[in-house]
UniProtKB/TrEMBL annotation:
This is UDP-N-acetylenolpyruvoylglucosamine reductase. PROSITE patterns: FAD_PCMH. GO terms for molecular function: UDP-N-acetylmuramate dehydrogenase activity. The keyword Cytoplasm applies. SUPFAM superfamilies: FAD-binding/transporter-associated domain-like (SSF56176), Uridine diphospho-N-Acetylenolpyruvylglucosamine reductase, MurB, C-terminal domain (SSF56194). It holds the Pfam family MurB_C. It is found in: Cytoplasm. Pathway: Cell wall biogenesis; peptidoglycan biosynthesis. Transmembrane segments: none annotated.
Length: 308
């Protein structure tokens, strides 16, 4: 689907960053782990914090829709794509050490931050060695795995607010809870996070990461595109167990399938559309509710527009 592009805004975006960093009608399936999604009208990848600020201010001045896209690991973009400006921070990937802290820009993968911690003999981020999201996404949803979560190690963050102003916030100001923060409510864009870690033994840290990597690779369907774990853990239950006990493993709508390897995952097995993927999510929710009277809440975000 092709949309009329605002050439005035396009030219201004190029003046803020560069022509190489602004794409027109960019297919978002190229930027999501599910390999789903229609096109972004304008897709921009700034290289500095100042460029991010200027792009937000431009969107405000032009009253143009603005969407921040992380690395697309916990996201479904609908088949009609996204209007206006879509910004991706995948060129902000610096990770640096200061004492027992690691400071990572929001476009860096949290996996890579955990690997840097290992190389620096710093302990605390072992749990993140298999989380596919970016630093920004990890803060956004207080990502966690295997008993650890971001709030355990996050000290502070630098964000940009909806007005384009730069703020430094303590972790306590983000209201970090199970798989949530106030970042979406406040409209913040994460630029970097500072993680406080402990000096440890390289081999001991590596042993934990190797064990968690084995558990992930042996249990998760990494051979197909997916958005990771689709649902939050309902109190007192495991989402995957409820789905499995509902007889839903292998259930398929179009090219989307409830994974045979891990019932908590829905995989893009055969060129699925976002519409098929979302229909399957709703079918799983309805079936589990009917069989066990448990409401499964989505962990994955769904954004964008349906095809007309």
């Amino acid at each position: 689907m092709i949309f009329v592009i605002n050439h005035h805004v396009y030219e201004k975006l190029i003046s803020i960053t560069s022509e190489n960093n602004v794409m027109v009608n960019e297919p978002l399936k190229n930027h999501t782990y599910t390999r789903l999604g229609g096109a972004a009208d304008l897709f921009v990848t700034p290289e500095t914090y100042q460029e991010v600020q200027q792009i937000i201010k431009l969107a405000n001045q032009e009253d143009m829709p603005f969407t921040l896209l992380g690395n697309g690991s916990n996201l479904i973009v609908k088949d009609g794509g996204i209007r206006g400006i879509v910004m991706n921070l995948n060129k902000l990937t610096e990770i640096r050490r200061e004492g027992n802290k690691l400071i990572a820009q929001s476009g860096a993968r949290i996996i890579d931050v955990s690997r840097e911690a290992l190389s620096q003999k710093l302990s605390g981020l072992e749990f993140a060695c298999g989380i596919p999201g970016s630093v920004g996404g990890a803060l956004y949803m207080n990502a966690g795995a295997y008993g650890g979560e971001i709030k355990d190690v996050l000290e502070s963050t630098i964000v940009i607010d909806p007005n384009g102003d730069l703020l430094t916030l303590d972790a306590s100001e983000l209201d970090l809870e199970y798989r949530r923060s106030n970042i979406p409510d406040k409209g913040y864009i994460v630029l970097e996070g500072t993680f406080t870690l402990k000096v440890g033994d390289h081999e001991a840290i590596k042993a934990v990461m190797d064990d968690l990597t084995y558990k992930r690779e042996s249990k998760q369907p990494l051979e197909y595109p997916s958005c990771g774990s689709v649902f939050k853990r309902p109190p007192g239950y495991f989402a995957g167990k409820l789905i499995q006990d509902s007889g839903l493993q292998g259930t398929q709508i179009g090219g989307a399938q409830v994974s045979l390897k891990h019932a908590g995952f829905i995989v893009n097995k055969d060129n699925a559309t976002a519409e098929e993927y979302i229909r399957l999510i709703r079918h799983v929710q309805a079936t589990v509710k009917e069989k066990f009277d448990v409401s499964l809440e989505r962990e994955v975000r769904i954004i964008g527009e349906d095809l007309n």
